[in-house]
Amino acid sequence: MTELYQVGAITQTHGIRGEVKVFPMTDDVSRFKNMKELILDTGKEQIVLEVTSARPQKNLVILKFKGIDNINDVEKYKGCGLFVTKENRVKCKKDEYFIADLIGLRAIDEEGEAFGTISDVIQTGANDVYVITTKQGEEVMIPAIKDCILEVSVEEQDGQAGYVRIHLLPGLLDLNNNRK
Question: Could you tell me which residue ranges the Ribosome maturation factor RimM PRC barrel domain spans (predicted)?
Answer without folding.
Answer: 101-156
